[in-house]
Amino acid sequence: MAQIRTIVFKAALVVVALAVTSGCVKVMPYERGTLALPSMTTEDIAIGIDGHVRGVSEGAAGGLSGGGGGCGCN
User: Fold this and answer.
1) Degrees to nearest 5, angle at CA 55 with 54 and 56
2) Segments making up each domain of the chain, as ranges
3) Which of 41, 68, 37 is nearest to 54 (CA)?
4) Contact indicator for 63, 73 with CB cutoff of 8 Å
5) pTM for this structure?
6) Please, are residues 54 and 64 in contact by the beta-carbon 8 Å criterion?
7) Cα separation, 60 vs 66, whole angstroms
8) Is 16 exposed, middle or buried (0-12, 13-18, 19+ CB in 10 A)?
9) Does residue 52 or residue 63 have the better pLDDT?
10) Distance between CA 73 and CA 46 in Å, rounded?
11) Phi, psi at residue 13, to the nearest 5°?
12) Is the model more confident about 62 or about 43?
């Protein structure tokens, strides 16, 4: 029983190690231009989310498309 547990533990350790190291990739020079595009940033997404939250929480000031009680609920 202990031998089976050891084999399972080692197999799980190998799977975790492969999963962790699979994200470590050297970016080639010709790929850097694609990764540097403005569309690869999260700012565009954050601006939309911030506008939604501000519109809902500031319903008394006119809001930006919805009214709420200031708690962020729709």
Assistant:
1) 95
2) 1-58
3) 68
4) no
5) 0.34
6) yes
7) 10
8) exposed
9) 52
10) 18
11) -65, -40
12) 43
Give mean pLDDT, residues 25-41.
80
Q: How many residues comprise the chain?
A: 74
Query: Is the CA virtual torsion 64, 67, 71, 74 positive or negative?
Result: negative
Answer whether 66's CB lies under 8 Å from 59's CB. yes
Which sign does the torsion angle of CA 30, 33, 39, 40 carry?
positive
- Reduce the secondary structure of the chain to three states and give it as a string: CHHHHHHHHHHHHHHHHHHHHCCCCCCCHHHHHHHCCHHHCCHHHHHHHHHHHHHHHCHHHCCCCCCCCCCCCC
